[in-house]
Amino acid sequence: MSGTMEDRLAKIFSQTTEAERAEIDRAASFIRAGRLVAIPTETVYGLGANALDAEAVKSIYEAKGRPSDNPLILHVCSMEMADSVVKLNDRARFLMEKFWPGPLSMVLFARGVVPLRTRGGLETAAIRMPDNRLTLELIRASGVPIAAPSANISGRPSPTDAQTVRDDVGGKIAAILDGGECRVGVESTVIDLTGDKVVLLRPGGLAKEDIEAALGLTVALPQDGSNIIKRSPGTRYRHYAPVIPLFVAEQATEELIKGRKWAWMGMSEPPGSPVAKIIFASQSKYARELFRAMRTLEKSGAELIIAEKTDSSRIGRAIMERLTRASGI
Asked: Which of 69, 212, 259, 308 is most buried when burial is the number of CB atoms within 10 A of its CB?
C-alpha cells in the first residue's frame, strides 16, 4: 500500500457523495440507538452494532443465533479509535500502518471500555479497519467502533452481497448499507499479537506470507490443544455450511456419489457428470465467489457438493480452511 494510513483514509473520505452521506447518517443514527445495521466490507458483509453497548451486541448474537462465547471483531476508522479499545503495541502499530485499511484483524488485550459480551468473555479483543468507504464513513459518523460478525444466520455461508443479507437476516435489522459485491469474498485474516510470537488464528484475505515479509519473521500456527484459538472469531464452531453436504474432492469416493446427484465447484472441469458446476477462472475468484457458489449449488437439485482442493498458500489457505469447516471434517 502506498502512503501512510492517514493519507489513505483522507483519500477514501474525500470521495463520499451527498446522497451517500444521507444514507450513512441515517445508518449512524440506528447504530447510536443500539440497533443493527448490515455493513459492506471488502471481505464479507457484517452485522454491525455499537461495540461498546452490551445490549446492542446482545442483539447481534440473537439475530444470528451465534454462541455467546464466540467473540466479535471491532471495526474502527482510526488509530486513535483502535487505541481506545485495545492496548496497542509497536508491532500492532507497524502492521496497521502497513496493511490498514484491509483484511487484517489483530487480537490484543482489551481495555475495560469493551463489554465482556463483545469479546466473548475474554481478556482480549480483535480489531480491524475495513477497506470499504461506506463502512469507514459509518464508523466515523457513529463515533463508536462497530462490532460486526458476518451478516448471516450462524453456520451458513457468509454473505458477499446485500441481497443475501436480506435473505438471511433482513427482518431482524434496521438497515442495510448496500456496497455492492465484496472484492475479497472470505473473512479477514486474524493474528494474535499478545505474546512474543505472532500467531495465525484464522487465515483470510491477507496472506500469511505478506505478514511474514513485512515483519521479517515467521508467523506461527497455534499449538494443538492451545486455548489461544478461542481468541479468534469464527474458529470454534462449524461455519460456512450449505444446506446440503459438502465434501472436498479427496473425500468424494465413487461409493459416496454413486446413484446420487452431485454438484461441482473448483478451478478444473469435474471428473464426471454433475447436475451443476461452477468453474472459477483463478484462485482469487475461487475465494471471491466461494460462499455465493455454495448458496447457488445448494439450490441446484444436487444432493451434495464436491469442492476441488486448491493449494494452501496465500489465499488458498483461507479457501481450504473454509471448505474444511463447511464439510465438518
From this structure: 308
Q: Give the sheet arrangement for strand 276-279, strand by strand.
A: 246-248, 304-307, 262-266, 276-279
Backbone angles phi, psi at 190, to 5 degrees: -120, 125
Position 234 scores a pLDDT of: 60
Instruction: Compute CA distances 154 → 23, 233, 246, whole Å.
Output: 27, 12, 17
Q: Which residues contact 291 (CB under 8 A, 6 or more apart)?
A: 44, 157, 158, 159, 160, 185, 186, 240, 322
- In angstroms, what CA-CA distances link 98 with 30, 42, 125, 211? 32, 17, 20, 9
d(CA 265, CA 268) in angstroms, rounded, equals 8
| Gyration radius of the chain over CA positions | 19
**What is the three-class DSSP state of 93?**
helix
pLDDT at residue 235 in the model: 58
Residue 41 sits at the vertex; the CA angle it makes with 39 and 46, to the nearest 5 degrees, is 45
CB 172 within 8 A of CB 89: no
CA distance 280 to 291: 13
pLDDT, one tens digit per residue, over 252-305 is 778 788 889 999 999 999 988 999 999 999 999 999 999 999 999 999 999 999
